[in-house]
Amino acid sequence: MLNSNVNHYGTLLSKSHLTLPFVHCVQTGNKTIRMASFIVICIQITGLTASAATFDQVHHIDGGKNNLRGSIKSISRQEIVIESSGGQERTVAVNEVAYVEFKKDPVELRAARRDMFSGNFRGVLEKLDKIDKPSINQPNLIAEIDFYEALAIARLALTGDDEHGNQKAAASKVVEFRSNHKDSFHYYDAVEVLGELAKTLELWPAANKFYKDLESAPWPDVKLQAIVLQGNAMVAQGEFNKALEFFERVRNDQTESGPLVDRQRQLATVGVIYCHGHLSSEDAEKGITVAADVLKMASESDFQLLGRLYNALGVCYAKSGQPKDAILSFLKTDILFPQERETHAEALYRLAPLWDNINRKDRALRARSSLKTMYPESKWAKLL
Question: Looking at residue 167, what DSSP letter applies?
């Protein structure tokens, strides 16, 4: 499932060998890329090149020896069947697929994939616009082009892009993709994006409907992800006690194990910490204690998780009357995880009053200015 790899591509990219090189640039929205040389290396290693391939390739989230080459025989919402050159058929569950390259991919589509992984969503649209779609007669390729176009437009809308900031129009584009390609292996990616768009638009019944659809997926990790997203929607509505119920459901679900479900439990635990920071000071102290345990287990390359964790910790420190520790937590998000746009925007928003409280008006002004400049359409900028 690709969508979890780029925004917000945490669920799968964090498990992929793409993680370390790419994670510095994912979701940057064309901001400074701090490890550009590693991106080139990563592109070469993963086969995301512009040259034509002689086979289809299914890239596994764990990469390397788990990647499969051959001829794709069938695709559905749940699985991809690929036949090797020796005639052996292998079936791959969609939740274990990082991305797919088709033998007849247009070079512009391959370039668009690179831009998607690097967070250059405008670049995705520019590359796709050069493709002569009427000349393509393979449904799988049309589905790929339509998906990347819809996803890029949605990501631009969610990040408040000036030109593509219409979230309703973006949602219509994703709905169109889902309707036209009901059996695409990107189906559940589209559902997740629709839920996020509905949440941003504060269309809560619609968001809940999409998350319930996501919860109907056959894989335990995606089911848990859907519950975490429902908890996040409750947080966005300020319903922290209700959000806790969703997050605790995931934390207490021990029916499955493995890195994918474990990560959803970690995200749910971060949600619990964040909620504690919005309740009593005693709850905030509990959150601080729990955060220490998550930090011990979290992967250093899981920037999405760590960014959210430091923000949650900062909220707890602020609630418990420890402003300097709160500042340090939000600064970690600001300095280390700026590619996590929504998380970074929140950190800047919360830093401003904390700097004011310790008479650092210059730093408070800088935080507010950065927030307005970098994320003018975010909900955090609108709260200033």
Answer: H
Q: How far apart are CA 65 and CA 357, in angstroms?
A: 54
Question: Six-digit token pair at 168?
Answer: 């309703």
Cβ–Cβ < 8 Å for 4, 10: yes
pLDDT bucket at 22, cuts 50 / 70 / 90: very low
Task: Label residues 255-286 b or e (16+ Cβ within 10 Å = b).
Answer: eeeeebbebbbbbbbbbbbbbbbbbeeebbbb
Q: What is residue 65's DSSP assignment?
A: G
Dump pLDDT digits (tens) for 24-66. 333 333 333 223 333 333 443 444 444 456 899 999 998 778 8
pLDDT at residue 164, as a whole number: 58
> Other C-beta atoms within 10 Å of 199: how many?
23
Question: How far apart (Å, rounded) are the C-alpha atoms in residues 357 and 318?
Answer: 11
What is d(CA 46, CA 382) in angstroms, rounded to the nearest whole number?
40
What percent of the chain stands above pLDDT 90? 76
The 10 Å Cβ neighbour count of residue 165 is 15
Q: What is the pTM of this model?
A: 0.84
Q: Considering the chain, what is the average pLDDT of its residues? A: 87
Q: What is the DSSP string of 235-261?
A: HHTT-HHHHHHHHHHHHH--S--SHHH
Alpha helices in the chain (DSSP H): 10-13, 19-22, 36-46, 107-118, 121-129, 139-158, 167-180, 187-200, 204-215, 220-236, 240-252, 259-276, 281-297, 303-319, 323-336, 341-357, 361-374, 379-382
Does position 192 have pLDDT exceeding 80, yes or no? yes
Mean pLDDT of the 331-335 span? 98
Q: Residue 274: name the closest of 237, 232, 303, 302 by CA.
A: 232
Q: In the prediction, which pLDDT does 118 show?
A: 86
Flag the least confident range among 11-15, 214-218, 308-312, 353-357: 11-15
d(CA 267, CA 259): 12
Calculate the alpha carbon distances from 270 to 61, 251, 261, 264, 288 in Å: 23, 10, 14, 10, 11
**Separation CA 57–CA 68 (nearest Å):** 6
Cβ neighbours of 54 (radius 10 Å):
7
What is the crossing angle of helices 281-297 and 303-319, to 10°?
Answer: 150
